[in-house]
């Protein structure tokens, strides 16, 4: 029988309303079927593991990502798929991080959550949970997983994890994948877009557990001051700076600004250019305002999301590779995070 492991980290989906006080509290996931009796209808074996102390996703950090990767590594041969229940605020970061940490995946790792607690009558949590489990258990005629990659399921759509971002905090359709098609759509049936889903790896799972978060993000805005930008030069141990740029990777051309970036690069700090636009890509040299960045050695993040850029840098820096190797790999598509 197909076996699925539910991993509860925290977040809105795992809450129920206390009948006496009306406040929301986490519930025991061993009693999950009481909250979602529909799970009894699945012809599969469902187990769950919960963090001892569930966390709000705003408190997510690399140590928790390593813990999640270790749980999956420990149970990888015992289960056919994994569903991670997670708060929505940083779900895209966790999905991106796990996509890099779990190399050679041949089984689904599906993240989901909800905008309303699972114990609320109008909750979106039940549908998200039920369908995420169904996707994690889905196999083709050869018995191979239909979605052997890290993905996010929310409000009837399945997205590649490292292409996803949260764009809405008020409606159930909280996530989008602006630069990559959806992997599957749930309606009367679940329709899988096989051409866009990663191929099942035949290699042994390799789990990367070292992440380096000595990075910073510099969001550009009109009127950004020299003294604020200069402060990044004073960060001890800084290894990489994400330049969160305009449009197709554009930035101010004032001599002081370019000089500061060039100084960082000469100090062996990687400067990685990611656009603030939800749709589109960085094309350094398309406009004069980005040609200078390319000239001084700023690297293009292509159509990477900020979430993928942050976690990819943490992953590569944690691998203890040379800077030349890291720069080369930043420009490569490692887990489907950028378009070739």
State the fourth-level CATH superfamily of the largest domain.
L-asparaginase, N-terminal domain
Rg over C-alpha atoms, rounded to the nearest angstrom: 21 Å
Outline the low-pLDDT stretches: none
Order of helices and strands: EEEHEHEHEEHEEEEEEEEHEHEHEHH
General form? globular
Describe this structure in words.
The chain is an alpha/beta fold and 340 residues long. It folds into two domains: 3-207, 3-Layer(aba) Sandwich (Rossmann fold), CATH 3.40.50.1170; 215-330, Rossmann fold (3-Layer(aba) Sandwich). It is 26% helix and 20% strand. The protein contains nine helices and 18 strands. It has helices at 32-35, 62-75, 91-101, 125-137, 226-230, 255-266, 288-296, 306-318, 323-330, and strands at residues 3-8, 15-17, 24-26, 45-50, 81-85, 102-103, 109-112, 150-154, 157-160, 165-166, 175-176, 184-186, 190-192, 206-207, 215-219, 240-245, 270-275, 299-300. The strands form five sheets. The protein has an eight-stranded mixed β-sheet, with helices on both faces. Helix 2 crosses helix 3 (91-101) and helix 3 runs parallel beside helix 8 (306-318). The radius of gyration is 21 Å and the shape is globular.
Properties at a glance:
340 residues, alpha/beta, Rossmann fold, 2 domains, eight-stranded mixed β-sheet, four-stranded parallel β-sheet, 9 helices
